[in-house]
Design goal:
The structure is a single chain. The protein is of the alpha+beta class and 409 residues long. It has four domains: 105 residues, conserved putative lor/sdh protein from methanococcus maripaludis s2 fold, CATH 2.40.420; 101 residues, Efflux pump adaptor protein, beta barrel domain (Elongation Factor Tu (Ef-tu), domain 3); 59 residues, RNA polymerase II/Efflux pump adaptor protein, barrel-sandwich hybrid domain (OB fold (Dihydrolipoamide Acetyltransferase, E2P)); 76 residues, Helix Hairpins (Orthogonal Bundle). It is 27% helix and 34% strand. The chain contains four helices and 23 strands. A six-stranded antiparallel barrel has the order 2-11-14-13-12-15. The protein has a four-stranded antiparallel β-sheet with strand order 3-10-8-5, with no helix packed on it. A four-stranded antiparallel β-sheet has the order 7-6-4-9, with no helix packed on it.
Amino acid sequence: MNLRLHPASAQTIRVALILALATLVASCGDQQKKKQGGAPPPPKVTVATPVKRTLTDFDEYVGRFVAVSRVEVRARVSGYLEGVHFKDGQRVKQGDLLFSIDKRPFQNVLDQSRANLALAKANLAFTSADLERARKLVREKTISEQVFDQRTQAKRTAEASVAANEALVRQATLDLQFTELRAPITGRIGDRRVSPGNLVTGGNQGNTLLATIVSIDPIRFEFTFDESSFLRYERLSQEGKDVASRGAGVEVALKLIDESDFVHKGRIDFIDNVIDRSSGTIRGRAQFANPNGVLTPGMFARIRVPGSPPYQALLIPDVAIGTEQVRKFVLVVDDQNVARTRYVTLGQVVDGLRVIKSGLKVSDRVIVNGLMYARAGQKVAPRQQNAPASKAGPQAARAPTKRPAGSGK
């Protein structure tokens, strides 16, 4: 039986055969090009060995400065304020004259007390001489025993009068001295609370506050840290590795809010004896030299406290670290130039390098440039990079800033 195709169908079959033939020829050409070009070269990467340094971990806390001494200058005698002998806010030295009260009434009282004392001494001299005469007369039976006892009593009364008037003179002298109020400590004085011409009240209660003085050199810094940090410090202290334990006198550093580094050096001089039940923190205190008076009571600052003894640490650039969900990893190159994955535990950042707590060896070649082109298990073309020079002495591995308890921020 003869089959005859419709002319349109025959034309469609011829076009399909031509397209299939063209595709086959192109595929053969691509395979030929691949055979001629070969496999792609391994990616070029830069590797470096970890930097080894001696580090000390540091904890950072926020706190405030407080004055070592704070004294309220109050009137000790009542009278009219006569003069103010300082400028508000200036630095004063111990013994400097600050205020003066009208001294004329107190000078009069002193003069009167001295006159009464002179009268009492004269009376004592007379009664003493009279008693001496009575001693001879009583032996000769010229006067009676009663008269002798009366003269003896008169002398004793005169002696008591002299003692009482001497005390009055001393008190009047003190009151006269109290009309000049002098600085009890060296420091910075605040503004005057009373102007000259006003009546000020002295005594033990209700006395007038005239000014306040705070010491500025040295100055103290108070901060709080949590219970877990306190336990860590104490454990290290019991192991003979003093960091911020009680009574260790450990050196600390401090920076102000406008400073970029911890340039002020001081020492811890006190840690409280109780942990605050409401916040779970304990109060610490450090003392700093303040010769120029920049550190001011009430000022905020950040303190850096040693959180570990010195130890040997490995550091690599932060860009060499990759993330796989919650785990951190680096790629190292083995002896066959094959990239291998190493999961690591990260520490703090020191001088732009990341501390690696675990997962690396000092001899490992870590990919620090080209991490996006390398794949674990594949070959790479490594180029060695010189490691940054290690700085001499222990470096600071800084911990995140810890806010003071109760800040709510």
